[in-house]
Amino acid sequence: MRIVNTGQAEAWNGYEGEHWAGHHDRYDAVNSGFNDALLEAAAIGPRDRVLDVGCGNGQVTRLAARRAASGEVLGVDLSAPMLARARSLAEREDVRNAAFEQGDAQVHPFPDGGFDAAVSRFGVMFFADPVAAFGNVRRALRDGGRLAFLSMTGLAENDLGAVFAAAAPRPEAVVGHGGPLSLSDPGDVQEILEGAGFRDVTCRRVEAEQVWGRDARDAAEFLAAWGPVRHNLGQADGIGAALADALRPFERDGAVRLRSTAWLVRARR
Ligand SMILES: C[S@@+](CC[C@H](N)C(=O)[O-])C[C@H]1O[C@@H](n2cnc3c(N)ncnc32)[C@H](O)[C@@H]1O
């Protein structure tokens, strides 16, 4: 297996991936409000062959597989612990037309033109060379094949940004500029995708409610353990208590609910 994103491979096969695999239900509660918009944008038909890039624990892979009931879906990811979780959840839900492969999407030897659509829920923001990586995904699509993915918008546009602003002296440093926020500027997204050979690129802002926990304390504990927060703020004194205080205003109906926006990006080969 050829890996060029070695730092990411270490992270997603280490703490980060173990945490996501161990808390798959909680990460899905955070992100699943975006699923319908993503899957609609990908316009998956019953016979389609679909690629889920950076599929993680595979919730979107399974949902895509239900839409492509007579087709098939391949989830690709760097993370062995998350792929193990994805396989066991697909088996538990008796999803038989989904398969999972470990690989670096930037260089993975996908079959040329092997897919009608490629999707990703927040799995395409971590490439060292995004033009090369999206070029590889484009190669995997047939002519006219569809790309649809979600990427994070800037923190200031989300309740999470307000939480970090209340809890940390430098909120912008909590998530950092590479990684999760690397595709938060639609101008950059357009340039990268066109550079990779895609056409008809559009970025639309979509909104969803994210459920981070039962109450502020529970959500703060989970958020403090989220990789970027642990990495950038983990050593700060009292961060758990500060996050809990910042999350309390968002407690509603038995949960902590944050309003979140994302870019829904579409393009064609
Ligand atoms: C934020 S998680 C999202 C996971 C999943 N799509 C979801 O919505 O729950 C990012 C995922 O991208 C994967 N990833 C990061 N870089 C990758 C690469 N170069 N090739 C394949 N997967 C990658 C990580 O292993 C991780 O599973």
Question: What distinguishing features does this structure have?
Answer:
269 residues; alpha/beta; Rossmann fold; 8-stranded mixed sheet; 13 helices; globular; binds S-adenosylmethionine
Please specify the SSE layout and strand pairing.
Blueprint: H1 6-12, H2 15-22, H3 24-31, H4 35-42, E1 49-53, H5 59-67, E2 72-77, H6 80-92, E3 98-102, E4 115-121, H7 130-140, E5 141-152, H8 159-167, H9 172-175, H10 186-195, E6 199-213, H11 216-225, H12 227-233, H13 239-247, E7 251-252, E8 255-268
Parallel strand pairs: 1-2, 1-4, 2-3, 4-5
Antiparallel strand pairs: 5-8, 6-8, 7-8
Helix pairs in contact: 2-6, 8-13, 11-13
What is this entry, summarized?
Helix content is 42%, strand content 25%.
Instruction: Briefly note the structural class of the backbone.
Output: alpha/beta
- Round the mean pLDDT to the nearest integer and report it: 95
Unreliable spans: none
Overall geometry comes to: globular
| Alpha carbon gyration radius | 18 Å
Polypeptide structure, described:
With 269 residues, the protein is an alpha/beta fold. The chain has a domain at 6-153 and 178-209 and 263-268: Vaccinia Virus protein VP39 (Rossmann fold, 3-Layer(aba) Sandwich). Helices cover 42% and strands 25% of the residues. The protein has 13 helices and 8 strands. The protein has helices at residues 6-12, 15-22, 24-31, 35-42, 59-67, 80-92, 130-140, 159-167, 172-175, 186-195, 216-225, 227-233, 239-247; strands at 49-53, 72-77, 98-102, 115-121, 141-152, 199-213, 251-252, 255-268. Strands 1, 2, 3, 4, 5, 6, 7 and 8 form an 8-stranded mixed β-sheet that branches. Helix 8 (159-167) packs across helix 13 and helix 11 crosses helix 13 (239-247). The structure holds S-adenosylmethionine (SAM). The site of S-adenosylmethionine has 24 residues, from helix 1, helix 3, helix 5 and strand 2.
